[in-house]
Amino acid sequence: MTGKQDSPVLLSIKDVSKVFGGLMALNRVSFDVHSGEIVALIGPNGAGKTTLFNVITNFHPLDGGEILFGGKPLNGLRPDQIAQGGIVRTFQNLRIFHNMTVLENAMVGMHLQGASGIVSAALRLPAAREEEKRFHDIAYQYLEMVGIENRAHDLASSLPFGQQRLLEIGRALAANPRLLLLDEPAAGLTRAETEALDELICSLQDQGLTILLVEHDMELVMNIADRVVVLHYGTKIATGTPEEVQANPDVIGAYLGADWQQDKWLEWMLEDSNPNAEKADA
Amino acid sequence: MNAIPRFNSNRNAIGWFAMTAVIALLGWVETVQPMGVDFADLTNGIVTMDTMVRVAILTIVLVGLNLLMGYAGQVSLGHAALYGLGAYASSILCVRSGDLLGVPAWVLGSWWWPWLVMLIGMAFAGALAYLVGRPILRLQGHYLAMATLGLGIMIYILFRENLGFQGQHITGTFDGIPGVPRLRIGNFEIWPISRYYFFAWIAALGAIAFGLNVISSRTGRALRAIHDSEVAAQAMGVDVASYKVRIFAVSAILASAAGSIYAHFQTTVSPAPFSFVGSLELVVMAAVGGLSSIWGAPFGVAVILIIKEILRSRLRVVFSGASGEHEVIFYGILLVLIMIFMPEGVTVGAVRRWRLWQSRKREQVLSPAQPQAGVPR
Q1: Chain B environment of A57 (Cβ under 8 Å)
Q2: What per-residue confidence (pLDDT) applies to A17?
Q3: What is the pLDDT of residue A269?
Q4: Which of A21, A143, A264, B102 is most buried, with most CB under 10 Å away?
Q5: Average pLDDT in the A162-176 region?
Q6: ipTM score of complex
């Protein structure tokens, strides 16, 4: 864990602000993500976590500050150019391509790794056919990685909820990102599915991927995150290892009001964040 | 890796076989006339070879419109005008370019000039669509529908208003431009109609092959992704605006090619088919055939054209005094019904429901009664 913070900075968020109407959704937020790290972004609802994702991927333009990726500023790039640069995200409310098969979804993820256009596709030129076969095989491997390859040729909309989440992650992985942004990957998953997700994310880290995730499931966050950044009303109130953040009085205050006990706080969070826990145990 | 099951790879093969068989059979009936029966006799004179050639020609337009509407999710309400661009390019450059541009007579008389003109028309329509589409398609939503509506009306007015300069007329009035030559390859004239029938259908099948190849490619997946979720497509690195413009240009090129084939079929090009009603008719055809189905294209065209022929020949019997304008009412009702009950289009709606049902069935076999307690949706 300590070693990773010595590795070079991959993503640098500097004084980032975003205003919606009169609401300060993000207020001078700054933090770094180092290469190979898993950083978790937590905070109560409305803290600005998803907004930060939208700002990093330029779906919303910045209102102040700067975001550097590998030392280069991202300002002014289109979302597809951000993806081209190596930042790929998933969505909190699933945005899979419903009318395409599971495999085709993953193949869209590989879009940037191809070059064939309308003419070469229409004429079935050898280069386009070669690329198509390569896409097909590699996309299938990504489905294997997330464990839904047995549904490869079914319509994506026919997958159960948990597998649709996995498909979103598989599709993002197929884009071969340097930085993966996961927006609440465990939301709505059963405990067993969350545990599988835990393993998947750790194995991705072992393969050298850098991950920034927003998550409400504190057990998952405490298990996998190297560092945690806490947002509250658009302001960064704490950063550190999971243990440090748990002990931080500002964080406890933000979630619960100032005079709660730390162990009680953790207990409450674990309980709250895992609504399926009781049912799975029963 | 060889074990990856490929799905429905022979679905298209069945389509090809059925389609070519039907076309060849109908063509054979017309040319050979077995037992003295020619094609028109089959339907008591309502559906003729003429109708079948029109089906082929409009199929080419519909493939392009399907790629744009069904796959990229952009509505064009001016496609008849783009179709008209091809028809007018062919008629003006084949009939009037001697006086207007000083093209020498030996070029005008050569067999390859109409083919070259066809390519010029396609290039022009594609370039125009690209230039018009570029600023519009950067915006989200149905701006393209509004813009193409305006573009279509503008082009139609140019066709109609006998545009001209220095005493020379370019487009002609309501009467249009007569005297468009038949197509030839060397000395082989593509006429009588049975020859043109085969030529038009070869072109239509070419367009279908083009469409099928595009949708199952990287480009096609990008378009379908845009249709399902523009945001997610962008997040995967798809340059949404650029793809929309390109497919709009491609659909304009197909429409223009079809227009040229139409001009050499009719030999007189008049503005009427390229009006807003024409564009509406194309949208209705696309809706009937299925908005995201290449195979639905010839089906949608055939259904509408045949209904139109029946209405034309029978409506007057039921409602005396009914004229061609009454078709518009019919299109309106049909479109509303389709949009209410099967917004994906008639054929696609049916096929998709069937596939979803199949997938669900497979899911139950693979994971029987998996507990899904407490999953919020």
Answers
A1: 235
A2: 93
A3: 62
A4: A143
A5: 94
A6: 0.86
What is the average per-residue pLDDT within A152-163? 92
Rounded to 5 degrees, φ, ψ at B93 are -75, -25
List, for residues A65-113, the tens digit of each pLDDT value.
999 999 999 988 999 999 999 999 999 989 999 989 999 999 999 999 9
The shortest CB-CB distance from A132 to any of B5, B217, B237 is to B217
Query: Which residues from chain A sit within 8 angstroms of residue B247, using beta carbons?
Result: 118
Say whether B225 and A96 touch across the interface (CB within 8 A): no
| Phi and psi, residue B103, nearest 5° | -70, 125
Contact between residue A172 and residue A79 where contact means Cβ atoms under 8 Å apart: no
Q: What is the mean pLDDT of residues A208-215?
A: 94
Question: pTM for this one?
Answer: 0.85
Residue B67 has pLDDT above 60, yes or no: yes
Q: Closest chain A residue to B250 measured between Cα atoms?
A: A118
Question: Nearest-CA residue of chain B relative to A57?
Answer: B235
pLDDT of residue B4: 44
Q: Are A38 and A205 contacting, i.e. CB atoms less than 8 angstroms apart?
A: yes
Q: Which residues pair with B269 in a beta bridge?
A: B177
pLDDT in tens, B201-231: 999 999 999 999 999 899 999 999 998 999 9
Confidence at residue A258, expressed as pLDDT on a 0 to 100 scale: 47
Taking only the tens place, the pLDDT of each residue in B341-371 is 777 777 777 777 777 777 777 766 665 544 4
Q: Strand A227-232 relative to strand A235-240: parallel, antiparallel, unpaired?
A: antiparallel
| CA neighbor of A151 nearest in space, from A191, A105, A197, A93 | A105
Residue with tokens 């020379």: B168
Whether the CB of A275 is below 8 Å from some CB of chain B: the reply is: yes
Question: Which one has a higher pLDDT value, B39 or B96?
Answer: B96
Q: Which residue of A has its CA nearest to B348?
A: A99
Residue of chain B nearest A157, judged by CA positions: B356
Tokens of B340: 């209410």
In angstroms, the first-to-last Cα distance of chain A is 36
Q: Is A5's pLDDT higher than 90? A: no
What are the start-end ranges of the H helices in A63-217?
Answer: 79-85, 102-109, 118-122, 126-146, 161-174, 191-206
| Cβ <8 Å between A117 and B231 | no
CB contact under 8 A, B235 and A109: no
Residue A9 has φ and ψ, to the nearest 5°, of: -75, 130
Interface of A with B in 198-227 (CB under 8 A): none
d(Cα B199, Cα A21) in Å, to the nearest integer? 61
Residue B266 in tokens: 């009719």
Task: Name the β-bridge partners of A19.
Answer: A24
Contact B239 A78 (CB under 8 A): yes
Tokens in use for A186? 């465990």
Quote the CA–CA distance of B348 and B331 in Å, as a whole number.
19
Return d(Cα A96, Cα B56) in angstroms, integer: 36
Query: Are the CB atoms for A225 and A1 separated by under 8 Å?
Result: no
Nearest CA-CA partner of B80 in B132, B151, B179, B137 = B151
- pLDDT averaged over every residue in chain B: 84
Distance from CA of B247 to the nearest CA of A (A): 9
Asked whether the beta carbons of B86 and B258 are under 8 A apart, the reply is: yes
A23 CB near a chain B CB, below 8 Å? Answer: no
A·B CB contacts under 8 A:
156
